[in-house]
Amino acid sequence: MSIEELKSLFGKNFLGREQVNTMLKALGMQELPADYSPAVPYPDGLLRECAADYLLVLGFAGHEGAPLTILSFRDAAGIDPDKSEPCLYNQDWYIHEDFVEKTLKPRWYLLKKEVIESSRAVRPEELLKDDISFPQAILCVYSFFAYWFAYGECLWYHDFVWCSDLDHNGDRIYVGKYHDIDGVNKNGFSIHRHLALRPCYASITTI
Predict the structure, then answer these.
(1) Strand 66-67 versus strand 172-176 pairing type
(2) Predicted TM-score (pTM) of this structure
(3) Among 147, 153, 164, 170, which residue's beta carbon has the most beta carbons within 10 A?
(4) How far apart are CA 22 and CA 191, in angstroms?
């Protein structure tokens, strides 16, 4: 299918050149090169099957000397919703982690738009046994901002989604939940790590 056919098929689930450039311009970043047009790697049948439930996302790694990473999104969008939204949640534990410097491959991605209901409160290692493929954190951050600026809507507003990335301790990264339903925390796209039990976690007692 042509890009125009895909845009028509996916509707508001399409994040192509126009939508990505809208995001990049809004964040003060350099837009896509004029000749940037990677082929869509999915067969037509799969694309038709996924159009209602998946985002079709044009991934971009950024320009030479200006990679699109979680850190660059943090710098561009900020961490204070009182100044501007959308933004990242105000935290800095991940600043020196490797995964925040990763970029996307120059390709199209299919990314599930809503969380899988049966996956709620299931440990990630169990989900990986069920033929679920976690996305990179950078793909989630990139798609979140692109969707916000393209369509004025927030992905994963109250939900966290597991990612394929691990921190330096091997703890799994999860992201999302822009708004705290209890109103305790400020708005912001969150990036957290799920702490695995290790010998350094132990108990004391009191009498």
Answers:
(1) unpaired
(2) 0.95
(3) 147
(4) 24
